[in-house]
Amino acid sequence: MTSTSHQHRQEQPAGPPLPGGPAYLVIGKLRRPHGVRGELYMEVLTDFPERIQPGCMVYAGQEHHPVKVLQRRNHQDGLLITLEGINNPESAGLYRNCLLFVRVENSVPLPEGEYYHHQLLGLAAVTESGEVLGKVSEILETGVHDVLLLHQPDGKELLLPYIDTVVLEVHLATGKLLVRPLPGMLNEA
To answer: CA nearest 133: which of 155, 146, 150?
Structure first.
């Protein structure tokens, strides 16, 4: 559940999933039992861990089994959480390495100009002159800024930095990114 910033307007909230889009977003990975009362250590995989509070519903595993969070507390670089129905180390151990999800419609609305990665996947990158460079197939997190991996119409791949001077506008409704590649980026002959 990672987000990417951009200065331009957001045309649609994270709200109900788009057709073909994900219904669930990963928020964490349960790593191991902690103690004797069924607590689990969770590796946080969301930008919004503060939203994981007692009473919230999360979905465990690829089957998206609904389970309520009973308790949570910070621990090292993750969280210790207690889930409903898990009250001993043996039952907690069954969730080892299990992903936890939230439903997309329950995800945190992002500020204007910020997008969840899943919202950008599949968008067509189009230059100001109308040339289609390719579709976003992956978003690489480099630490400095995100990089969009585009699959071009000719089958090649192109890396496009997700910075304001390259990605000029995001149009979720039309499925397009307006882009201005940096000089030499396209290796034109």
So the answer is: 150
6-29 per-position pLDDT tens digit: 433 333 344 444 455 678 888 999
Whole-prediction pTM value? 0.62
Last-in-domain residue among 106, 129, 164: 106
Torsional class of 165: left (φ above 0), alpha (ψ -120 to 50), beta (otherwise)? alpha
Give the ranges where the chain is alpha helix by DSSP (H).
89-93, 117-120
Return phi, psi of residue 180, to 5°.
-130, 95
CB 9 within 8 A of CB 178: no
Kindly state whether residue 13 falls inside one of the protein's structural domains.
no
Please check whether residues 35 and 96 belong to one and the same domain. Answer: yes
- Would residue 164 count as lying in a domain? yes
